Amino acid sequence: MIVGRTKGGNRLAMFKQLKKWGLLCLMICCVVGLTGCQNSNSKESTEPFDVHFFYSSTCNYCASLRSNLLSKIQEEFGNQVTIYEHEIDDEESKTLYDTFFGVYDAQTDTVINGQLEGVTPEEIGVSELLPLNQYYVPVLVIGDYYAFMGYDSSFDDDYLNDIHLALRGEPLSSKMAASRWEFKKDA
């Protein structure tokens, strides 16, 4: 017989014991959960990559992207990245733009998308390739991974995160999907 304990005391002791076990279980779940979030198979590429920035000198969004995001990309990736700037009113810039985003096939009345630099019309089975003549800015082409159009400085962290995901070969975030094109990878 236990002297000095009441029914309420037994409940209190039982509650304290449950509290200890509950804390222990919570800590185990947190450790397992955090470990499960890490993907040890995803190693970020250290290969150099290019960023092509298409802009217009009269575009305020372009100026904002240049002064904010481009400097953050350079700072984040250092010597791994080379940034090229292309004024969209320049004919060479328009030609390069078309190689990233497509050309118009007058014979079939279709747009042929994809990276077409150095491709002849015969190689893709058309008679003539005409430029789209629709040039929207700002546009940022990230290596051979993807491109996005438009800019909002409140999403700078998301833009940088997508570059890291691309370099790890992981799916890009859905947050920026509406203004982004992913390039096909050769199998």
Describe it.
By secondary structure, the protein is α+β, with helices and mostly antiparallel strands. It has two domains: about 50-90 and about 135-185, Glutaredoxin; about 90-135, no CATH class. Helices cover about 40% and strands about 20% of the residues. It has four helices and eight strands, in the order αβαβαβββββαβ. The chain has helices at about 5-35, 60-75, 90-100, 155-165; strands spanning about 50-55, 80-85, 105, 110, 130, 140, 145-150, 180. The strands form two sheets. It has a five-stranded mixed sheet, with helices on both faces. It has a three-stranded antiparallel sheet with strand order 4-3-5, with helices on one face. The longest helix is centred in the N-terminal third of the chain and has 31 residues, at about 5-35. It is globular, with a radius of gyration of 27 Å.
Tell me briefly what this model is.
With 187 residues, this protein is of the alpha+beta class.
Descriptors for this entry?
single chain, 187 residues, alpha+beta, Glutaredoxin, 2 domains, five-stranded mixed beta sheet, three-stranded antiparallel beta sheet, 4 helices, 39% helix, disordered N terminus
Q: SSE layout and pairings?
A:
Blueprint: H1 7-37, E1 49-55, H2 60-77, E2 81-87, H3 91-101, E3 103-105, E4 110-112, E5 130-131, E6 139-142, E7 146-149, H4 156-167, E8 180-182
